[in-house]
Amino acid sequence: MSNEVITTMQLSELETPALILDSAIMDQNIQRLHDRLSQFKVTLRPHLKTNKSADVSRRIGEPGTPITVSTLKEAEYFLQHGWNDILYAVGIAANKFAHVASLMQKGARLTLVLDNTESARTLAQFCREQAITVPVLIEIDTDGHRSGVPPEAPLLLEVAGLLGRSDAESGAWLAGVMTHAGASYACTSTEAIEAMAEQERAGAVHAAQRLRSAGYAAPVVSVGSTPTAHFARSLDGVTEVRAGVYVFFDLVMRGLGVCSESDIALSVLCTVIGHQKEKGWVITDAGWMAMSRDRGTATQSVDQGYGVACNIDGQPIPDLVMIDANQEHGIICHRHDPGQTPMLPVGTLLRILPNHACSTAAQHSGYVVVAGTQDIKANWPRFSGW
Amino acid sequence: MSNEVITTMQLSELETPALILDSAIMDQNIQRLHDRLSQFKVTLRPHLKTNKSADVSRRIGEPGTPITVSTLKEAEYFLQHGWNDILYAVGIAANKFAHVASLMQKGARLTLVLDNTESARTLAQFCREQAITVPVLIEIDTDGHRSGVPPEAPLLLEVAGLLGRSDAESGAWLAGVMTHAGASYACTSTEAIEAMAEQERAGAVHAAQRLRSAGYAAPVVSVGSTPTAHFARSLDGVTEVRAGVYVFFDLVMRGLGVCSESDIALSVLCTVIGHQKEKGWVITDAGWMAMSRDRGTATQSVDQGYGVACNIDGQPIPDLVMIDANQEHGIICHRHDPGQTPMLPVGTLLRILPNHACSTAAQHSGYVVVAGTQDIKANWPRFSGW
Fold first, then answer.
1. Which GO molecular function terms does the record list (chains A, B) (predicted)?
2. How far apart are CA A123 and CA A121, in angstroms?
3. Which percentage of chain A shows pLDDT scores above 70?
4. HSE toward the beta carbon, residue A177, CA cutoff 13 A
């Protein structure tokens, strides 16, 4: 099943830029959330949108364990690789119904999400016509950052009223609720993340209780984000937790206090190709195409530019960051004083820690895997698109 | 040679998100720059990093015409599709020499770029050892935005001194100079772009004259960016002009006054999947993964968020922009007054004009081609990575 390719190369033999994954760090990150959640009675349903790789995902859980995806292409791919219990966590639209039906015919146990009566009505009608039974979660808005029905809203029961009460007969049936406290990415302290986790939990549980009072079993209460999963003090009433970035971590998570810099498993290997010595600039061959345009730390207390520069062993070089980017050029400079930028010789290899693992990984077609040294252990392919 | 797939579908039959290219608009854009440059004695060497597609590139020029690329993967791909006169416009590093040699063995007439003595020395040595003859342009810094040797710098002649004077014998030989006035993207008026174009031209020509005074033929003077290519009043002394974004155009170019909104050939088709009515938000299934994280208009006089919302025919809906994005969710809202956001029904198809054609196109594996209507004319694949 694996496309894994074993190599005997070193990082220094690569053409750059290249996406490097330290699997030793990754395995620690995976273990950390596993251990943390084991104290609660919840299922981890990892979000595989971050890694889009069967090789990475097998380190999280064996095929067959529950997963979350953000596109039907991810659902299709992970189904082909043996995962069939799949939550598609973006509101379903009618132009995806046929694809959903095709995935179910291939054996997917898909769960869908919606937050409005139009989607519930059209999905229910489609499922009746096609004699398909599909579980549906109503998305709950617990933090105001995106989609979802507020836990208190009358709309919650209106949407529920368009769905079946169980899988006893074919159709779209209400399996419960899901929420994602994406606002946790804007928290400025771990106390704030704890509070956000409680808000996320309480809102989802409250919505589920309203549904149960109205006669629905609503067995599923699905919550999660990487920050709240790591700081929730109670998960009472929650049945499953979703998180994705925690596998790799990144500078945004480091800025939030969810991880430290040494927990970041992902980096972009690049080569020094020139200098602007008078400006204190070191120019590399990893621009925004290799890092993505994500500037997620720009609004945090420490702006990391396009990323933190490390040596080839992954050790950060003090105060050296990627301050700007062209498509295929990176500009590396001392954070505070360009005069202190070390003029690393042309040909020097650097590893740049990314702001956001999801967006940087998406710029690459695979992971070059190491485990604490410069030895390349494997090349793991990943995919993109829809 | 073409991977073109002819279809008889309509835009409304697509699963979303999808990248839409209006080839009628594109052809106009291509013709416009062709016509403009025909008044000057220069060669157009289009930058294909924007489109990364043989199908698009054939509309610009037949295989065999001169091209510019930003990665050796682009060089490899376009060589396979018949283009052999290729400028690789990013400073060369030693870990790419073997790839360069392999491309030359396959028939590429590659031109390389560098701006420092270390690269010149190592490349010259490699070429001597391998008995390879490769033309080199010294990158000139005419605007302070990135790489390159200032036109007046003593370094120019130091670098030149490490290169051969002609292709009469094997080795790396100095074919001339190249510069890219990327600072033109930050101009706030067309007058400023005109001035930047003259600065770009004058700096490159001056550098070439210094080299000629030192005994080098330096036949090539390569300049260009989409803004300066459209506003240069003189190209005296210039031998070739490079531009890439002009084929598609985008909101950044519109903000600069280089094109109008109706000249933008690229858009992302998406579907309304929900609302937050009290906030005036329409939620779609095109997030930053479909648009990219590029916020290039954020520093312009009109911030277009993640893009301008159009109806399925590509007509902008007044003041409707994509104000925020999650990975697979877009938030559409009235630019000034959320209360005026039209609550477009769930299922409505929208087309979002991108800030930056290069970065948005890079998020997709192909173009769905239309020509002024909703009829899909073709699917053109594109590639990414290194």
1. D-serine ammonia-lyase activity
2. 6
3. 98
4. 33
Residue with tokens 């003077």: B221
Q: Do B272 and A72 touch (CB under 8 A)?
A: no
CATH code reported for the domain at A24-247? 3.20.20.10
Interface contact flag, A93 B347, Cβ < 8 Å: yes
What is the number of other CB atoms lying within 10 angstroms of the CB of residue A301? Answer: 7
Q: Which residues from B are below 8 Å from A99, CB to CB?
A: 15
Instruction: Report the residue from B93, B345, B362 with minimal CB separation from A289.
Output: B362
Is B81 part of the contact surface with chain A (CB cutoff 8 Å)?
A: no
* Distance of residue A39 Cα from the nearest chain B Cα, in angstroms: 30
Alpha-carbon gap, residue B226 to B7, rounded angstroms: 32
Q: Which residues of B touch A94 (CB under 8 A)?
A: 347
pLDDT digits (tens, 9 = 90+) for A312-331: 999 999 999 999 999 999 99
ipTM of predicted complex: 0.96
CATH superfamily of A261-381: D-serine dehydratase-like domain (2.40.37.20)
B360 and chain A in contact, CB less than 8 A: no
Which of the 8 DSSP states describes residue A254?
H
| Fold of the CATH domain B25-247 | TIM Barrel (3.20.20)
Nearest CA in chain A to B98: A15
Quick: pLDDT tens for B175-187.
999 999 999 999 9
Strand locations in B64-187 (E): 67-69, 85-88, 109-114, 133-139, 171-178
Report A:170-209 residues touching B (Cβ under 8 A). Answer: 182
Cβ–Cβ contact B115 with A under 8 A: yes
Cβ within 8 Å of B, A 138-167: 139, 141, 146-147
Evaluate whether B143 touches B197 at the Cβ level (below 8 Å).
no
CA distance A218 to chain B (A): 22
Contact B53, B367 (CB under 8 A): yes
Local structure of residue A50 (DSSP, 8 states): T
What CA–CA distance (Å, rounded) separates A218 from A212?
6
Report how far residue A366's alpha carbon sits from residue A56's, in angstroms, rounded to the nearest whole number: 11
Domain extent listing, chain A: 24-247, 261-381
Q: What is the DSSP string of B326-347?
A: -SS-EEEEESS-GGG---PPTT
